Amino acid sequence: MAAELVRGQNHPLARTRLEIRVSAGHPVVAGATLADDRGVVRGADRIAHPGAPVLPGLDVPRQAAADHRIAVDLDAMPGDVHRVTVLLALPVGGGGPTRFGAAAAPFVAVTGPDGTEEASYTITDLDTESAVVALELYRRNSAWKVRAVGQGYADGLAALLADQGLADARSIAGAVHDAVARERGRAVAPPPRTTDGTHVRAAATAGHASGALPPPTPQAPAGGTGGPIDYTHPGRRDPAPSAPAQRPEAPVAGDAPGWSPEERLYNQVWGMFEDLARTTAAYRSAVDFADARMERELDGALADPRSRLGGAGDAARESARARHAALVDRAKEALDRDLAQLAAEAEVVEPALPAAYADWDNPCWQAYRSPTEHPMAVRVGELSLPESESVGLRVPMLLRLPLERGLWVDAGASSADGPADADALRARAAHTAVLHAARLLAAHPAGALSVHVVDPASTAAAALAPLVDAGVLAAPPARGAAGVTETLTRLTERVDLVQMAVAAGAADALPPGLDTAEQLLVVHDFPYGFDDRAITRLRYLADEGPRVGVHLMLVADREDAAEYGPLLDPLWRALLRLTPVPDDHLADPWVGHAWTYGPPVVPRGSGVLRDVLAAVAEARRRKGL
User: Fold this and answer.
1) Which residues contact 164 (CB under 8 A, 6 or more apart)?
2) Strand partners, 121
């Protein structure tokens, strides 16, 4: 059966030659953009619109109209195209609606050339927007999928194109509207209205050739009052039986765009994270819609005194609950399908990850060798959602390097389950910080990262023992207020020197004894041992350090620093909070899910941390460090 999508939901495509059929009930401009693997449209020659309607594998209408057909041949697309975005915009100066919220919701269907529908989407919840991204076709694991987007732009087509990376978006949008104005004399008039005032929509079904369907026969309620509600889309016929969907290919590790195996795996992990975010958002949206619709139907049944009591009222309530259950079941079926596919992908991706991306129980650590090149990213834990826990799906959390923000390992109370004892939490936070530092050391070539530790009260001696015993620190952990001052002074001077050298274009003029490696400062039990001057220097390192290779990791309890008041607020905001126990404090940039973060864990009884740090130390000794 064809899939009726909700916002954010995706669906696999069974074929690569497609038609995208648009029915809006009023003239709209239809177009499409071709984007690379990062979702960026590289230039105006990657946009199909009425002024330039034909691109390889893509043909869009040449005028504004109420109904459109866009021809797509995914096999004919250039090899660097990974995303086809279908956009709709209201024409300027045509006398029609100026915002989508003032007109009927656009309906978009993806069909085969024979009219067999694969997926459809009604773009609801639009208001002041005059341009909208309807849906996107995107490449995933050598297969193509369609995703319902429904992202509207109140500032029009120029804002939509700018959001896709086009610097000259305003002039391109002007050219599109100029082309539409030139063709306005041949624009298709809006379809006729039915007896109840609604527009007739073109069908996204086989056999439709005339451009409009006859008006549907109004469905009168039984007995002239109450009765069932017809949720059939206006003007749509039952689609012809669709061809059975192709089974998705078995997932392959590294099956993502990129110049190197490391980059391909990074992009694949990022794609898994994005897919999990969006498929969960689609499921939650569908359940919310089903709940709201059932509530409206039950309220309507109770509001009518003639149907409130007796068999008619019971039947109406039972019918509303049945429709609610059907919608939720269909949404859960789509979610389970996507989760199963992602879980299968995770099973082949996780064992193939390099050491910088791998969990501590990955076999790659048993054959660890110090790398010869700087890593692209590093793993700092894993992420999951409540829905993904049913299949045990957790996505690696990778941070790009060099770090743009410092890290804050929270030693305070967590909202999730974990040790209730404050001392146990602090000890676990210190151990987690050591795991992060060890991972960063192991991911860099020998001598490419120097790690400094400040432990003013000497309370982290047990946790720091693996780093100290292996001899991989740049210096012994600094103790007391004097140690804090000396370490911060040395690193702030380094930041100043490198900044001046870079600004003057004289990097060769740096002092000969200056350590040019990346620097990581780990501060335990902050702000103990820090006076106002030290805190000012630490804020300076957090703000200016990452640009010149000096990075910060704090192990701290925010409540302990409350006495400093707003002085530390900019510092907290500049750091990425990580926890030593699972906690749902992270949010994604698309739909704002509360992701559960899982910190790194070394398997109980394993000597992997000791062995890896020994290998790091040996590589440093071979280089004379």
Assistant:
1) 33, 35, 39, 40, 41, 85
2) 5, 108
Cα end-to-end distance, the chain, whole Å:
65
The whole-angstrom separation of Cα 109 and Cα 237 is 13
Give the H or E element holding residue 486: helix 480-504
* 182/176 Cα distance (integer angstroms): 10
Task: Give the residue extent of every domain in the chain.
Answer: 3-211, 363-622
Condensed to tens digits (0 to 9), the pLDDT of residues 362-403 reads: 999 988 999 988 889 999 999 999 999 889 999 999 999 988
Query: Model pTM?
Result: 0.68
Extended beta strands in 51-159, E state: 54-55, 58-59, 65-73, 83-89, 107-111, 117-122, 131-140, 143-153
* Model confidence pLDDT, tens digit, residues 470-510: 999 999 999 998 999 999 999 999 998 888 887 877 767 77
239-260 tens-digit pLDDT: 444 444 445 567 788 887 778 8
Determine the number of helices (DSSP H) and then strands (DSSP E) in the chain.
11, 21
Of the given ranges (315-319, 431-435, 453-457, 520-524), which has the lowest mean pLDDT?
A: 315-319
Q: What are phi and psi of 16, to 5 degrees?
A: -110, -15
The class of domain 363-622 in CATH terms is alpha beta
**Phi-psi sector, 211: left (phi>0), alpha (psi -120 to 50), beta:** left
Q: Note if the bond before 419 is cis, omega within 30 degrees.
A: no
CA distances from 33 to 40, 70, 87 (A): 9, 12, 8
pLDDT score at 305: 67
CA separation for the pair 532, 4 (Å, rounded): 60
Task: Tell me the C-alpha distance between 65 and 391, whole Å.
Answer: 46
Number of other residues whose CB lies within 10 A of the CB of residue 115: 18
Question: Which residue, 521, 500, 519, is CA-closest to 575?
Answer: 521
Cα–Cα nearest to 355, from 345, 365, 342, 347? 365
User: Could you tell me which CATH number the domain at 3-211 has?
Assistant: 2.60.60.30
- For the stretch 570-598, pLDDT in tens is 888 889 999 999 998 888 776 778 899 99
- How many alpha carbons fall within 13 Å on the CB side of residue 287? 12
For the stretch 30-71, pLDDT in tens is: 999 999 888 888 888 899 998 888 899 999 988 888 889 999
